[in-house]
Design goal:
- There is one protein chain.
- The protein is an all-alpha fold and 213 residues long.
- The chain has one domain.
- The protein is 76% helix and 0% strand.
- It contains eight helices and no strands.
- The chain is globular, with a radius of gyration of 19 Å.
Length: 213
Amino acid sequence: MTDTPDIKPVRRKSGWLNIVIDYGPMLAFFLAYRAFRPVASTSGVGDVVAVTKGTVVFIIATIAALIMSKWRLGRISPMLWLSSALVVFFGGMTVILHDATWVQIKPTVIYLASGLALLIGLWRGRALLKILLEDAFHGLDDEGWRLLSRNWGWFFLGLAVLNEVLRHIYNQANHNFDTWIAMKIYVFMPLSFLFTFAHMPMLLKHGLGQEEE
């Protein structure tokens, strides 16, 4: 997820740092929103201000994650570039228009684009996760990459649908941003972790780690 001739070898990702880079900005957004949101806000104005300020923190944290990835891991993955660009664009629209809809749509766009890219890549005979993740799954054979790309492709599309369903349900029910953002932390993140760990038997069967010393 380099090009110059005598480039330094890419450093292997450490698990905790990868998690911080991937999920830290979203957690920072959640904490900032909770900190800026007035207690017992009923007018909705407080929510909009909190969302706007939280989004500014989100954008700053996302840029910090890019810098950290380059500094500590030696590179920035294409997936991180894509998600960061979308955070800046949709976050910027949220701040400029003071409309939380933009930041809520951003995950749908990321999930939809990722899912379609993986499935279309498979249709064309390429397991794109092998290119995006490189040595994150060291030793995995081609069939393992194909299965992983297929499963994550459909999973991303499922998350896109789930995000839109929740966004419409909770916005129409009480126009409250709290429930949607809580679902991002307490539903989407655990689902992603569980889906990742559920693949371990399949990954090991297809050579994960077998080439490591």
